[in-house]
Amino acid sequence: MCRNIALSESPRDTLIRMRIAFVGGGSGGHFYPLIAVAGEIRKNSAHPELYYFGPSPYDEAALAQFDIEYIYCPAGKLRRYFSVQNIIDVFRNFFGVFVAIIRLYEIYPDVVFSKGGFTSVPVLTAAKLLAIPIVIHESDAVPGRANRLAVRKARYIGIAYDDVAQYFPPEKTALVGIPLRPEITAVTTNPFEVLGIPNDKPLIYVTGGSLGAERINSVITRSLGQLLPHYRIFHQTGTDNIEDLRLTAKSLLDGTGLEDSYYLEGKIDAPTVSALYSAAALVITRAGSTTLFEIAYHSKPSIVVPIPEDVSRDQRTNAYAYARTGAATVLEEQNLTQGLLIQEINSIITDSNRYAAMSQAAHSVYIPGAAKSISDILISIGHEHGS
């Protein structure tokens, strides 16, 4: 939508389109739901200009795919443990607010959409000072600190769990689920063919998210000799220690004849993730909400190992909120052993009644249409703000 605005009335140029700013990052769980919403917005006839604010572009290819302009804005992370970096990051946030005020004033978007995370704090603070409408989405079962800062000024709050509704004003809060990328929800006719994996025994997909999970990686690697005679395992480890894990696995499996039942990758693309969800009999995962909703979309039972609470309290809360539906079982990291993990895997896969019940429970968790719902809200506020 174009409109004539005098330069004295706004920092914008004349005859401009609707503008929408995205913020939220630090992990794929914050970033990729923004991309899913951007995909829906691109289907709208308003054709808004889209901007992504953050300390880094996170995934430049994804931004380019939907013609999203990256705007640099520094941000500091507040850790739950003592670190000198906490002091440094306080100054990063102050500087980030200063940068965000300047860049938001230059662009002056019609609405800012936040997925939370530490990268959003300076932008949300600046948006409040500039009276720019804010929409937030909370993926976790307890609200993050960044989104808490924006509650009073937020025009609309989308949530993924009923549990978190108690923290937000009911008149502007809606249960919408989590926006998932089309690549994740795409139907794969023959996922085993896509993956190049034989469909001769159950496939277990193990993922620690984009950053990996050291404890899960270690226990899985030590359990290979007992698991691989019965299952194939696709293990996404993160990129940090993949070569060490590759060497460890090779030394454990050399000469056993089980080498071709184990697949090790540091990072995988979205179509491969979708094929893995489709092919897997079971998923072993951290408790990032986006990952849990991806698993739910594909109706797969899961074993969830949340990040310890002293590092990330939202993961443990997410894990138990999800597990209460019957879709998953939770193993605390401090209790995770080879014996316990193997026992739980066998119990789920070999008990057909339990397996079916968990699959059905996972299916019931997924809420369709989150990206479209949020896209419609952003476009509506954009039209209202620009009129």
Give structural notes:
The structure is a single chain. The chain is an alpha/beta fold and 387 residues long. The protein has 2 domains: 19-177 and 369-386, Rossmann fold (3-Layer(aba) Sandwich); 184-365, Glycogen Phosphorylase B (Rossmann fold), CATH 3.40.50.2000. Helices cover 43% and strands 15% of the residues. The chain contains 15 helices and 13 strands. It has helices at residues 28-41, 60-65, 84-107, 121-129, 145-150, 182-185, 191-195, 214-227, 242-253, 270-279, 289-297, 313-323, 338-350, 352-365, 370-386; strands spanning 19-23, 49-54, 68-72, 111-114, 134-138, 154-159, 173-175, 203-207, 232-236, 262-265, 282-285, 302-304, 328-330. It has a 7-stranded parallel β-sheet with strand order 3-2-1-4-5-6-7, sandwiched between helices. Strands 10-9-8-11-12-13 form a 6-stranded parallel β-sheet, with helices on both faces. β5, α5 (145-150) and β6 (154-159) form a beta-alpha-beta unit. α11 packs across α14 (352-365). It is elongated. 47% of the residues are buried. The model is unreliable at 1-15 (pLDDT under 50).
